[in-house]
Amino acid sequence: MKSFKPSSLVLCKLNCAVMAAIMGLSVNTAIAAEAEEQEIEEVVAVGQRLKGSAGAVLQERQNQAFVADIMGADQISRTGDGDAASALRRVTGLTLVDGKYIYVRGLGERYSSTQLNSMYVPSPDPTRSVVPLDLFPSDIIESLSVQKSFSPDMPAHFGGGNVNIRTKSIPSDFLFKIQLGTSYNTSNSDTGYFYSGGDDDWMGRDDGTRALPSSISTALKSDAGLEGDSSTTLEQRQALLQSLDWQVGPTEKDVDPGMNFSVALGDRFESEVGTFGVLAAVSYDNEWEVVKEQSGTNLGSLGCEDKCFAQTYDGISTEQTVRWSGTLNLGYEFNNNHKFELTNIALHDMSDRVRNRDFFDANESEEGVTELRRVDVMYEEREMFSTQLKGTHNFPELENLFFDWYAGTSRANRDAPGALDVVFQTNLNDGVFESEQLQDVAATNVTRDYQTLHDDVDTYGWNMGIPFYGDGYELELKVGGDFSEKKRDASNIQFGITHRGITDEYTFGSNIDQIFSDENLANSEFYTSITGSGIFDDGTADGDKYSAAHKLDAYYFMADFFYENTWRITGGIRWEDFSQISVPFQAHTNFFDGTIEEVSEVAIKEDNFFPSLAITYIMDEEMQFRLNLSETTIRPDMRDVSSTYYVDPLTEFLVRGSPTLQSSKLKNADFRFEWYMPSGNNLSVALFYKDIENPIEMVELAGVGGAAPQLLTANAQSGELTGIEVDFLTDFSFIHNDLSAIFLSGNVTLSDSSVELGINDADGVDSLFEQQLKEALEADSVSNIVTNNKRRLVGHSEWVANLQMGYDSADGFHSTSVVYNVFGPRIIVPGTRGNEDAEEKSFHSLDLVYSYFPNFNTKVNFKVKNILGQEKEIEQENLTLWRQEEGTEFSLSFSYEF
């Protein structure tokens, strides 16, 4: 493993960041000293933002019966993170993957669950089992709670932890706040490549330009198919081709700086029948990013003496991201004992990416003679709409009985129309450019993809409890129920326009819109056949369209016992009845792909009890010890039991599931020491252990020729995770009282994991993993497929560190933080056939955030993100499997609260 060695430029940037924070300290110290010399006419007590942000959520964490970490809105604002995913990487033991997914304690995203205000929500991402957390802007978040030990009142689908996104409620007083901001990334100084798109792209919506034409949809569903039959005419095929959008260039583009704004309005109204409240907020963000990208596929010895990738890519990616959100929260309080709240949330995220990359193929490329270039366009819209209604009721007249309830409905959509992939061939004569054309290989296509996904989740639940008080003890008994139903419909339509179906002289050109111009498409000589036959190639497979559903009914019982304010014992049991089914369809039809018996074989039906126990010893008002023990499960997602493929967005590998995939069973243990000091300083040290039966892992399957490698989702035999976490917050008053305004907070996690796949041909009995691998490969033996039968868990980092050094001026006008985050290398793709595992390398993130408060209502925020300018990289056999440039981003925002 290569060590990280900062260059002189990096050191300079680091020094500048630290100096900026210290200059903020020195300047404001001088201002404070000057103020002391003047006559004081008024004394105002000003609380430090240190205590208001990092310290505000400590009380809640201290009072939790189970191990949890909580991040408040002020903390998120302090670090300048724009969404839930970016903010959560600051939490102890959490790492961020692909800018969207959180790994808790080194376990992959499937080992965490996400809730919105303690309710289930759907995911608009077909490639992941959890909600992409970058979808939630920080503007709507009140706090983020990460519970790392299982309690009976939360889902038993629990591994590393449960992330609960708690949105802002109705305000305590009138609120009207506006915020404007802009940003610039140094990587955007490079010229990108883009296309015109639709008129509504600025809104994050396609205006229909990219949509699948109805004529093609009709043709795909017909008996003759898209290609047609002997009666299909040239004019009919021309009309189909002309109905597609070909104005995708791409052409060179200098991108604009990012811009964003948000508005929030809320108030409370007293009346004779109770108190009413309302909070409405909208936000909009439009950003561009131009980055340099490198990647490789199909590791082997083709084209080299030792090891190399048979296909490599090197070029520019240009991406526009548009996000907007809206919330409308209504509240009613009859009195302090009866409250109702209605929460409405709309989230929308559009990503439009064009990549223009040099493409080397060991089978086809010949340097100086025939070189290749690959252009691909990927547009997607993700959105989620959620409506949640909840009530809390206390009955003092009934021995303080309480009853809470909730009901919610959510839907998530993903629409990815008009994706395009094309390979150009550059012809050279002794290294001198002569011409460019579509790749001159008979089996090559210009590929078009149209994907849709729709998820619906309905959920409701209740809990009730009653407290008992005695001599030296308190006891609370609680029962509840959680119920949810989820439905999914997804489809992927893929077809190609064959290079061989185009006359050679018309394949020449450097842009898609040049080759597929209206003039060319209308010319009969464009087609190799007089009827245009052979121009289309339908690549849609059976199972690319599927419907799935799951249902969960759960009941739980809990008891929370306090004795002499010294011991707290909290425990209970949860029962869950879970069923899930996924039904694949034949391509372009509504007919099942398989018999009823085959569909029922992949259905999951299980019910289990899940116990949990938490013991807390309260030494005094400052120190306490916790021990948590529990049993949980990790269930396969809908996509995990399907044998159809989807493309992993990070590695671009093809991923498929196993129809016989089983749920994992986990035994969890947590022990934590916590010390909460009166000044707000604190320290916690936690030990954790997890024993996993049948962990769900991935293994690489060999690709064929130049095809993308494949990954199989399968059950390993066993797994373990052990580790220690240290979290702290301290000011520097222990050095001198004048330094109490400077603080240091951080956390470090050290852990180790192992997974045993269960490959052993000698025992004569196939493990579950061997059965699933043999079925996928249609092979009799798999002992030579996997390099390491025992290794670390996929996605596990052996160490994670977060540090934040901050300063709050005594006059309350200035706040400065330097924030550092790093994780250890983690396996992304397990190695096969003797190759090493592919690992994502450590990424050192250093950010500077400065806030200026000229008055009580105004805030100016300046942030420098990724000061070190380090690249993100995945390596295998010391070769670059994937690398992406990460520039330094500068952002400035202004907010005013009326």
Structure description:
By secondary structure, this protein is mainly beta. Helices cover 10% and strands 52% of the residues. It has 11 helices and 42 strands. The strands form 5 sheets. The chain has a 22-stranded antiparallel β-barrel. Strands 1-6-7-4-5 form a 5-stranded mixed beta sheet. A 4-stranded mixed beta sheet has the order 25-26-30-29, with helices on one face. Strand 27 and strand 28 form a beta hairpin. The N terminus is likely disordered.
Précis, in short:
This protein is mainly beta and 898 residues long. It is built from 11 helices and 42 strands. The relative contact order is 0.13.
Main attributes?
898 residues; mainly beta; 22-stranded antiparallel β-barrel; 5-stranded mixed sheet; 11 helices; 42 strands; 52% strand; globular; disordered N terminus; cell outer membrane; Plug_dom; membrane; TonB-dependent receptor
Helical amount: 10-25%
Sheet with most strands: 22 strands, antiparallel, barrel
- Coarse shape: globular
Strand content: over 45%
State the end-to-end distance: 54 Å
Q: How many beta-strand runs?
A: 42
Number of helical stretches of at least 4 residues: 11
Radius of gyration from the alpha-carbon trace, in angstroms: 29 Å
Uncertain runs are 1-53
Structural class: mainly beta
Q: How confident overall, as mean pLDDT?
A: 87
Pfam families: Plug, TonB_dep_Rec_b-barrel
InterPro entries: Beta-barrel_TonB, Beta-barrel_TonB_sf, Plug_dom, Plug_dom_sf
Protein name: TonB-dependent receptor
Keywords: Cell outer membrane, Membrane, Receptor, Signal, TonB box
